[in-house]
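The following record pairs a protein chain with its ligand, adenosine-5'-triphosphate.
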Amino acid sequence: MDGTHGGEKTKSRLCSICNQRRPALKRPKTLQQICRECFYVVFEEEIHSVIVNNKLFKPGERIAIGASGGKDSTVLAYVMSELNRRHNYGLDLFLLSVDEGITGYRDDSLETVKRNEIQYGLPLKVVSYKDLYGWTMDEIVKMIGLKNNCTFCGVFRRQALDRGAALLKVDKLVTGHNADDIAETVLLNILRGDIARLSRCTSIITGEDGPIPRCKPFKYTYEKEIKLDYFSTECIYSPNAYRGFAREFIKDLERIRPRAILDIIKSGEDFRIATSTKMPEQGTCQRCGYISSQKWCKACVLLEGLNRGLPKLGIGRTRGVNRNDDQHNDAKNIQSKPCGSLDF
Ligand SMILES: Nc1ncnc2c1ncn2[C@@H]1O[C@H](COP(=O)(O)OP(=O)(O)OP(=O)(O)O)[C@@H](O)[C@H]1O
């Protein structure tokens, strides 16, 4: 009797997959206690299933991996190159990095990307804000201060990734956005009443009608699991308090009920948008030719503000502004859509 009881006890302390090794972690998704070796196998195979089930890639495609040197994209670069080899996806993979010009942050993380270039044997392309826009984030922050600098950074990065992808002539761009990021964005879009972004922020592929489609193979992957082996890198200019509150709220929910993250994503996916809701029409920026729902894209509006010494131009919420007005001189008239960081 005692022996059986002791045996069960020992068994319950073993990995619930291999039943041989000691568990090293409890999976937030399934609450299974598993060992490190089994974790790597199930983690990678889950990403493979997401890729296959959602038909993310076709053989022969050229794919850029948005590589920031942070934890998510570093794991993404590893998993993509591993699965491409293991499952013969037949993809041509590239690393694409945007150098925002943030001393002490991006220059450090770019070193990680350069190591990944060698480790995984993937060609690396770096595009910089300085080359594309004439400004580094250090210079922008010096001019505008810490408030609103995330708006500049988010809008410029989005466009810089598209421009880099065009230079690499890739078919798609993959990013390391994870389940926590998406749940957070669903909440923020609800809090802002931004129905257009809410309706697209849960899609695993976005921008199929734009210059470069973007995919998120980590859409269902918990940040906690990606973080296991990597250190977090936080931007030194990141005062985005509102997003920070949403992030903390999601982490609190996760502590009480880990499934909350996937449930928020599911709620976002299942929202039905009333047909009477007016959606922005996609056109092209009259200045740079990049996609825009206004006459000028957000990047051009922000850049104009910087270059004219009016950095507040384009900051804040300005929905559906004067598409048909004469926009040449009036600062108010050339504002466009709010912060691109709520888009993927
Ligand atoms: N400077 C950059 N260059 C290239 N890709 C980037 C850059 N910044 C962000 N990305 C892409 O966008 C994704 C989300 O970035 P974000 O900074 O919002 O989240 P993160 O969780 O800090 O990601 P990471 O840990 O990969 O930096 C990244 O995983 C990466 O694929």
